[in-house]
Amino acid sequence: MLPWFVNRQFPLYLAPMAGVSDMIFRQLCKERGADVLVTEFVSAEGVFRRNERTRGYLEFDSAIERPIGVQLFGGNAEHMAEAARQVVDWVQPDFIDLNFGCPVNKVVAKNGGSALLKDCGTLGKVVDAVVRAVAPLPVTAKIRTGWDDHSINAVEVARQVESLGVQALAIHGRTRAQGYSGAADWEVIAQVADGVEIPVIGNGDLFTAADVAKRKRETKIAGAMIGRAAMSSPWIFSQTKHFLLTGELLPPPEPAEKWALIQRHCELAVAECGIEDLAMRSMRGRLMAYSKGMPASKMLREKFQHVSSLGEVAEIARMHQASCLEAA
Description:
Elements: E1 12-14, H1 23-31, E2 37-38, E3 42-43, H2 44-48, H3 52-56, H4 62-65, E4 68-73, H5 77-91, E5 95-100, H6 105-108, H7 120-134, E6 139-144, H8 154-163, E7 169-172, H9 186-195, E8 200-203, H10 209-218, E9 223-226, H11 228-232, H12 236-246, H13 255-273, H14 276-290, H15 297-304, H16 310-327
Parallel strand pairs: 1-9, 2-4, 3-4, 4-5, 5-6, 6-7, 7-8, 8-9
């Protein structure tokens, strides 16, 4: 068994999110209680062809981010196996994770991600090839409930990948057709957790510590994977751990603490990029995510859409905190 599940531990995963779960954000979440990290999903074809840009997505800080997995997607078993071998040689992750859940058209069109949920023969070949290629390194996988409402096959897929050597399985409680809309189907997640012996990590509509506790209580999931909620509240991991341990719901952090995190994230992004304007433009979407739940969030989003320097962020923070104090 993977060590983070031993002794009935209940690990909290940061979900792999394209354009979000980069090295900086992973480390910020790790500081705030995330137990297991996974890279942004990486094209196996890009790794196979030794594309330098693709290789950049594999980088992580070994001293801070472990345990960490590299998530690969692709539909060619031979190329997936070779890509996994190269990843292991290059960065020595703690596990390889196989993406059978991404609903994005450009991934599905290449027979990657959730496309393989309707081609279980190819899915099985990919799993078998990768497991053999990187043994004894663990291989995990992530799936959805099915392709659409007429083909819910998560339990069958889970049993298939378990039989081929996958050591843990994350399941997002939506079909590919749903994308990220509608409600996550936790009944199917519960059925998967009941139907296999390997640890099952539940994912979908986990927005608060209470949400995680409820799903842990009602299903046999062995861990939880948090995605969108972490984008606006990275401290959800520490809050969830505290609630699971004590039953006490911690209050949200003070505005000053949240602004300090935002400023630090921006500073790290600028330091990594080396060009302040470019880095801050790329941070605009992230800043808007942070504004969720904050007072005057609409105003903040409008300002964040145009931000291009660290100084602007600091000034927005100063004005926002001053207005909050006046309103108190």
